[in-house]
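Sequence in, structure out. Go.
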Amino acid sequence: MAASRFLSIPYLFLRSSTAGGALVAGLVQTFVFARILSPELFSIFILVGTLGVTLWLFDLGMAKILFVRTRDWHLAGRKGTIVAEQSGAVAILYTLLALAISAGVFAVFAALPGASAMNALELSLFFLFTALNLVWFVLRNLSVAIDEFITFETLEVIRRASHMAVMLAMLIGLPLLAFLVIANVIWALLFAISARRLAAHGALTLGFVEFPARLKRFFRDNRQEVLRTGTYGINEFYIYNFPYAVVPAMFGLGAPTIILDTTFKVFRGATLLYSAGCDLAVPRQTRAFAEKDQSNLILSTLMAAGLCSLPALILCGLLIFAAEPFFALLLGKAATMPPEATPLLIVLLLANMVQTVANFLLVHTGFFRDIARLAIAVSVAMTLATAAAIWAGCDFLGFLKVYTGVYVGSAALYLLLAVAGPIRAARTG
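Output:
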């Protein structure tokens, strides 16, 4: 069985493929949009898409609470009927949230002076396309919790390939609206397949009539954890996305916003690659933590770090030796990436690797209170440092340097917290 081996080779192959596909998909999106949209409209799509993607990256932690609860009953060899019902309620909540905000995006843009209903519809459907990752995130966590990760990653390969194929079709004439409709239909089909499989394994129970009561019970049973993961999620949302408010406001739309988004696509795209390496270690880490097997916990965490170092080295090598032609090909005439941004991006990639490894261990072993406190501290530091940079009259690159410095400090703190938290707690006796 894949879950019983220290490293599942099929899972390694599939998870690496989907993580690489995630990074490529982000770059493909930039490549296509830079050629079919004006720089200003491209900037607006970036901001709308950022809002949607953020819901997936930081879902206020409820998916991770469900992972911990589902993993507990799965490792104990029991059935978790109540947890399965609550998982279904959270999945429905996130679906409704994505649909509601998408409708709100349409209403806002349709009400703007000189706006067209078509542009408003395209922006709302693009938001939905990115926001539905939030629901997929819940299904991923449940699948990993019951050791059904290979099946899920197979579906993820299909999703990535389908979405990229339809996206690239816009270069040969497929209308933007058609792409958005097809992409969201693909989402719906994959949700149905994944939800059915999880239900068959007792990990998900959907019920629209019972949804409010089950959601209420989830919040009642996990009040403290939701508060902590919510605090963590809100602050993580802020840390990774406040530059999208600062840069347009201080340096304008167009090139500055496009350069920021391209930098963060590589930076946050690397998180998806690192997450692949960390995901491979999660089943073994959670077993070791439950059994208080510190040596196995350390070994599996080092394995995650080693797997993460491979994409980190590749990306850093690409940036060191081929940054200029790479970004020129990616952005075309939409913007020019300044050479000074490359070393900053390399530092961000390395710090992100450290933070992702530590963060995965903390989250999947339930150290929600500790990461919530640290996230608050980092948010405050980011705010104060940004305010100082603006007061000092820093340009865009100066702001990016400040952001990088604070982020490096936060990565070091996450590493220390992982050692003092789950690794120390896994000692026997």
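Check: Residues 294-331 form the longest helix (38 residues). Residues 170 and 352 are 33 Å apart (CA to CA).
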